[in-house]
Prior knowledge:
The chain is α/β, with parallel strands linked by helices. The protein folds into two domains: about 5-200 and about 390-410, Glycogen Phosphorylase B (Rossmann fold, 3-Layer(aba) Sandwich); about 210-390, Glycogen Phosphorylase B (Rossmann fold), CATH 3.40.50. It has helices spanning about 20-30, 85-90, 130-135, 140-145, 150-155, 155-165, 175-185, 210-225, 245-260, 275-285, 300-310, 325-330, 345, 360-370, 380-385, 390-410; strands at about 5-10, 40-45, 55-60, 65-70, 100-105, 120-125, 170-175, 195, 230-235, 265-270, 290-295, 310-315, 335-340, 350-355. The strands form two sheets. The protein has an eight-stranded mixed sheet with strand order 3-4-2-1-5-6-7-8. A six-stranded parallel sheet has the order 11-10-9-12-13-14, sandwiched between helices. α10 (about 275-285) links the parallel β10 and β11. α9 packs parallel to α10, α9 packs across α14 (about 360-370) and α12 (about 325-330) packs across α15. The protein starts with a strand and ends with a helix.
Amino acid sequence: MRKPVLTIFYQYDPWNATIGGIQTIIGSCIKYAPEGIRLRFVGVTSTPGVETGVWHRLSLKGREVLFMPLFQLEDDNRRRLIPTTLRYTLALMRRNLASDFMHFHRLEPSLATSGWKGEKTLFVHNDILSQVMQEDSDSEEQKSSKQTILWRKFPKIYLALEGKLIRKFAQVLSCNSESTAFYKAQYPDMAKRVSLVRNTVDGELFNPLSEAERTRERQALCARLKLSAETRFLLFAGRLHPQKDPLLLLQSFAALKRSNAQPLHLLVAGDGELLDELKSERARLDLEEDVSFLGPLQQPQLIELHQLSDVCVLTSRYEGLPLVVLEALACGTPVVTTRCGETPRLLSEQSGVVCDERSPQAIAGALAQVLDHPEQYPRASCVRDSRPYEASQVVGELYQQMLGHWEARMAA
């Protein structure tokens, strides 16, 4: 029996630093794929001189992968006048890249695949209701952010497009309970094809340091940043995008600084269209010495920050299940988050705090609770809450199901 071919479609370059949980999930799907599956990836390239539109046989995450970049993309961390998703979809329309199994991490590119034969799976990474459709409940501040959230301007168009495309998928796998329930209700004729799937964290990479190692490395980090050895670190990692509401993050940190005598420092790992606005806000709040914008980091650097930080903080408006939460917990770091996505369902009283109120005062209070009482959020509890999301297990189950489908198809 020949090996089945899986083709993964997403608009990024796996060999260059880019921000986003989807990229991490794709990396785990490649790393933990069984040898009985041949892998292809259709993306973009940010390396000058790489030939586009042809297959390149390369190594990724320790696996051989056929890689086809559709076009050159210099910086995937910044949005453009013509959305990258649109460019990617148009580039696909000139080709037929069908295979036995196809994984899509955005809906739009499947517009180009109507005649392609093979089993298609759509991964849904956000709470669709909050991301696109709940426009009437938006505050004025949220409405002002819609210039960077395209589908929130045109929710009826998105629903029409989705209704046309969604039934072409053999499976719709959502990491968010609300989205899963929405799709089952919205498309009852395909409810059996819609499932909740866990996002993943790679426990081989994300894990806690020993107490001695952590103390030594924290002192080294303080020395590099020219900070007091007693400094407590807060970490934000993600796109600097209205969805993540990093302005609320800075305002919350400022409120925490005003009410807390400890030496504190906020590490911001990421890039995006709000960077300049955030730097201005940092200056307005007089936080230049207390907030470091680190830009997009390679994975080893991000792992180090997770291991050394005292708390990971998210101020998002909406989420699916953010990978940064799982990565922080796997490194033994507690989480403070707004109430959105799946995070409130996985955190326990010993691994983090969920803020019901989206205000600087409420978030600062939650951060103070974690920083002032670290014994209530032990590293062992944080790691324990991340274990059900171990990449090798979750991805293994996904591939086991795929190979079952393949064997049944070959036996028919």
